[in-house]
Specification:
mainly alpha
Length: about 70
């Protein structure tokens, strides 16, 4: 390994690092946005009721009745 070897840094990594340096609150804003849509508590009783109420699909969808 050469004496003056520098590890490679991609353009994308450089861009993200500069973006985080310009706007330090970016990660907190991303976490808040994620919490709005994805980080929700799951109601296990409602999910179980939903799973129990599913109707089994026929093996051949376009068949109208048993033959």
């Amino acid at each position: 390994m050469p004496l003056f070897w520098k590890p490679y840094k991609s353009d994308t990594t450089s861009f993200i690092e500069s973006l985080k340096a310009k706007k330090p609150s970016l990660e907190d804003e991303q976490r808040a946005g994620r919490a709005l849509l994805w980080d929700k508590r799951v109601d296990l009783d409602a999910q179980a009721d939903n799973d129990d109420s599913r109707v089994a699909q026929q093996p051949y969808v376009y068949q109208t009745g048993p033959k």
